[in-house]
Input
Amino acid sequence: MPDLLLELFSEEIPARTQAKAADDLRRMVTDKLVAEGLVYEGAKAFATPRRLALTVHGIPSRQPDLKTERRGPKMGAPDAAVQGFLKATGLKSLDEAKIQRDPKGDFYIALIEKPGRDAIDVLAEILPVIIRTFPWPKSMRWGARSGKLGSLNWVRPLHAIIATFGLETEEPDVVKFAVDGIEAGQTTYGHRFLAPAAINVRRFEDYEAKLLDAKVVLDPERRKDAILTDAKQLAFAQGFDLVEDQNLLDEVAGLVEWPVVLMGSFEPEFLATPAEVIRATIRNNQKCFVVSDAKTGKLANKFILVANIEATDGGKTIIAGNERVIRARLSDAKFFYETDLKTKLEDRLPKFEQIVFHEKLGTQAARIKRIERLAAEVAPLVGADVAKTTRAAHLAKADLLTEVVGEFPEVQGLMGKYYALAQGEDASVAAACEEHYKPQGPADRVPTDPVSVAVALADKLDTLVGFWAIDEKPTGSKDPYALRRAALGVIRLIAENTLRLSLMKVAASALAGLSVKPADVQKLPGDLLTFFADRLKVQLREQGARHDLVDAVFALGGQDDLLMIVRRVDALGKFLESDDGKNLLAGTKRASNILSIEEKKDKRLYDDEPATALYSLGEEKALAKAISEVQAEASAAVAKEDFAAAMSAMAKLRPPVDAFFDKVRVNDDDPKVRENRLKLLNEIRSATRAVADFSKIQD
Output
């Protein structure tokens, strides 16, 4: 079957938009093909700084013929209805229609045949529409048409379009269409400087090979691999290790079509500036990589750049130009750093009085005071020194007002640590200035120093409670204040540091420090706890654990100790993997289902204690005895927080529950016996609730 080659050649496409644009092009074209009945075999899209390209192979050469039936009016319907039916279906008379028998009457049916079109004609119709409606985040209009701007909106001026379609064994045809005066053809262009001449192509294999000869690596993944491999080898050859940076690699691969890796250097005295500042300076301003000494691991006074040209002088001029710019930028960074060191962190804090954190939550200064107070309360709960914790909370945000953080926001917190150490603060206080932001994502490190943990918890809980109080909760996919991330951070801080604290109490304390109070003050901590439960389910799901078990534990109520919940969920999960657990779950659900049906039918609950005198069968007596013993044993184990023992106790219920359902008829003819047996079923449900609400567990 034929293949499609499409290329949209333009001026430089911003690197950050290329990957999504390539994916959008693939999606839009293939969706349209499928909608037109042209089901393809495979598709792949590519992007370079000056082109989007797409190959779709295995497209049928022609659409399938379509046959559809259209129901018309009843026989004997008014003439106007009949004429409308004939016009809509293209029939010349009712003689061409079928008659369909129906209980409501006999209806006319038109058989409409729509012959398929050649795929190349369909492509000529859909491709210009896709190009005109392409979803660039930002686009522009350019060029003159009769004294007016062109009508096409594209990310940068579009110069040429390739659109060929045909079998591999034949010369492909050009898909005939034009967009804003640009006619589709078979011509593209190579590297802007190394091979700028026009190139005539036929199909994808020919296209990719000719571009490579013209110094254009089409596949962005291939460009990334080349950059990474060459950079590592160049660094290794001189005794250095490349400091890898995936985001920078993605961006640089979108800036070049023919990557050439070179190494430059800067003056050693700049290394007195923190390594992270040097890296941010070189990365942000020149899109270059840094290297470290292979022996010491410390940052070296070298950098690696990626050029888009093979220079005749071996790259000396390119290196010199980058060195000149980097030297100037590092001079600025060094000046900012040295200037920052002249002012103590606490001396910067008065400026926060003039900076609003949120219009409803007050200034940054007010927020810092709230975090200080809350951190001091949390400190004893996590084993942190109260004085150090208070000091750390007092200084933690101060680096936001420094010159370096103003220039490079990504080093906030880290610079706070450096400045705190420089002014002689305790190591734990300095560490907390950096670590109180952590963890910022599922892969981020969790602080373990008690002072850092206390300040991190206070910071995140103040944020959560504050925005909950002003009703700025996450909705759908929108979470402008990163509250979901804050909640996951709290969960990881508690779980990975095995902390025992009541979220309800800490949330209530945080709420007490707010100047604004919600209408329903009492409801907020519980509402926030539900949010934590949802976040905990998300985390467990990502870890491959059963998130439904969180519901089963939370349904018991009064659970705000996250560590205990995690332990209980873990024990419950292991129990349900055993045969005893699986069978007890099935028995408990069977009991619950029977109860639900009968309670609904009888319009009453069977939650009273069953009468022992009405037990007539041995299986009833055995089950009642087992429930009494197991409930006491499991409750005692839960009280000791020995959840594994509680699950072992629950396992003892399996044999009597199985025997009961095997031998006992619940809906006995005697109403009193039936009622008593339903009450016994409720005892099963009540007994298992010592460890979890089994009705919330998915089969």
